[in-house]
Amino acid sequence: MQEAAIAEIGSPRHRSGLRPAYRIDRSFEWNAANGPAIEGPWPAVPATPVKDFLGLKVRSRFGVAASILTGVPWVEAYARLGFDILTYKTVRSVQRRCYEPPNWRFLDPKTVPLLDREDVAQCVLQTVPDNPLDLTAVGSFGMPSLAPEFWAADIGRCKAVLEPGQVLVVSVVATVGADTTEAAVLREFEDLARRVRAVGADAVEANLSCPNVGKREGEVYRNPELAGRIAAAVRAGAGGAPVTVKIGHIAEPALLAALLRALDGKADGVVMVNGASRHIVDPGGADAFGAGREQAGVIGGALHELALANVRTATEIVYRDGLALKIVGCGGASSPARIRAFLDAGAAAVESASGAVWNPLLAIEAKAALPDL
Questions:
Q1: How far is Cα 178 from Cα 167, in angstroms, rounded to an integer?
Q2: Distances (CA, A) of 121 to 50, 112, 243, 252, 278
């Protein structure tokens, strides 16, 4: 790994006028402990009328996906910057350390046009671009979680810093081992939903997709029957709070329809899509993140087109089959135009991850350009 090249991202200011919030030259744990690299001054946030999000009152239908919000400093900063749906990073019943750095790299534009091909490896650049928003990124984190003792206290602190019209969603996932039964998975999802709800979550998200962990945790969304049972378990634990399910990209319309039908009546919303899992290599053809981390999640950039097509298909299925589900667009939502595209495709709300990292002013720009957001 080219350490000097990766370290460059910690210093330049990009077009937003602010440094990227997440330091990719540092570990996940370092970023969680030190908070976002945002110092202000804090700009004014355009006023927007109150709207509905799954029965919750929000100032806008835009927020941060489960990704970087690992504590009060992160949640408070993004709330002050106008993001109104704030999703706390996925938590587990046990602490799980992140994969070692590097965790975040950028794809060569020469291979990105083949992103829709699951059998085609994507190649990384050896350097960091001057403006990350111009390119497609790839992340290899492994769905880490801070210790339960930390997040159990921290979620309430995060809820306390929000203003009226802002909501805290908490993402949860069961930890699966080789001998874990489906019954144990269901119990853990229900228990986690109950625990995060008790300490302040306004809504609970079941994370059924992670592009860089084992299939038993990362591809549950491809099993409609199990996904429906998990959603029902989360619903039981959430105690009446809205429930969403986060899924990965599904190219097959029949499988997507089966999944949505299985979730209907058990979840209120479906967040789509998580990063697209692809084999990631360096220019020499070796695994870019090292042995055991061959697959990683493509995020931002060109993922937008895949996500947008999936959202459009999902909303058509929801309408055709009369399902009581809302679709939340996620994936490459890095500009007001892309946010608008998700809404026009039928999304009830939109979330950003890498776009919010590289441009912390994204919500402010979006509210100025989209008064109905």
A1: 36
A2: 44, 10, 35, 20, 6
Beta strands in the chain, from DSSP E residues, in sequence order: 51-53, 56-58, 62-64, 85-91, 104-106, 122-123, 137-139, 167-172, 203-207, 243-247, 269-272, 276-281, 295-299, 326-330, 349-352
Q: What is the mean pLDDT of residues 263-282?
A: 96
Task: State the first-to-last Cα distance of the chain, in angstroms, to the nearest integer.
Answer: 41
**Structure tokens given for 250:** 């599904």
Residue 24, H or E segment: none
Give the tens place of pLDDT for each residue, 221-248: 999 999 999 999 999 999 999 999 999 9
Question: Whole-angstrom Cα distance, residue 74 to residue 325?
Answer: 29
Task: State yes or no: cis peptide before 234, omega within 30 of 0.
Answer: no
336-368 pLDDT, tens per residue?
A: 999 999 999 999 999 999 999 999 999 999 999
Contact at 8 Å (CB) between 362 and 66? no
**Which pTM was predicted?**
0.93
Domain ranges of the chain: 3-369
Among residues 254, 265, 333, the alpha carbon closest in space to that of 245 is found at 265
What number does CATH give the domain 3-369?
3.20.20.70
Instruction: Specify the pLDDT at position 210.
Output: 66
Q: Are 203 and 243 in contact (CB under 8 A)?
A: yes
Q: At what angle do helices 224-238 and 182-198 cross, to 10 degrees?
A: 30
